[in-house]
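Supplementary Text 2. Reproducibility record for the structural model of the 301-residue chain.

All settings were left at their defaults, and a single model was retained for analysis rather than an ensemble. We include the record here because the model underlies the residue-level annotations in Supplementary Table 4.
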Amino acid sequence: MPSVSANGITIEYQSFGDPGAPPLLLIMGLGGQMIHWHERFCATLADRGLRVIRFDNRDAGRSTVMGGGAAWDVQAMFQAWLMRQPLRAPYLLSDMAEDAVGLMDALDIERAHIVGASMGGMIGQLLAIHHRERLLSLTSIMSTPGGYGFPAPKPASLMALLSPAPADREGFARRALKVGEALNAGSWPLDEEKVMAVGRESFDRGYHREGVLRQTAAVLASGSREEALRGVSTPTLVLHGERDPLVPISAGRATAAAIPDARFVPMSQMGHYMPPQTWGPLIEHISDHISRSLHGFAPAS
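Retained model, structure tokens:
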């Protein structure tokens, strides 16, 4: 797959669809790689007349692996955050938002539709706050405005996501299934072999345990965006699973409430995971929102 140099790092990406079509940038969540936006999901969106671009965040997959954080203790990190103590991080979510802008610059994209899942939704929110002139629309999926005041994640989901990864390929694939089961929260039956196949591909492309810790630190250290979101003028759609065990649906509602004129759509049978059963509804909501943003809203300025 191709890569670009942007914002001081190398970013691996892949495009689907007509290069001259309106661009849509997909931003993945904590520890995820661009392959977690499945090829069929991307291709179906591209068939709707979009140039779909997925990419590896820093510290994920084949993009640049950053430094620092080797000796971090996850429990201590969350304890410090819960006690509202200052948390130092090698980089912040705002730096990851600049990565996305750098990728757009490198691909000569002036403005794009942004779709972000979980941490990717947080990055998308920061793009809408600081780079509104570069956005055509924003879709924030199973994400949060940050800060405090929301119910805690279900312990099993958080422990699964941040559990140490086995060093062998098959062990890593089994862990991927356990993570999927914990985040899916029984919403849909999972195809175990397909989930494990994505786990194997993730292992082959590059999983960076320290990178996941650095991304986690970036999420916790970046604070609340709620007040800044009140100034967002980008047409925004917020999608959130009613069964989400990691980021409570109240965080999705708060995101939509903070952004003027944002639409909130609860997904009745969805956790913090996007199995194939969710792709159809997600694509319909995203496509409809993009159409609305192009024809029913004034351009962001």
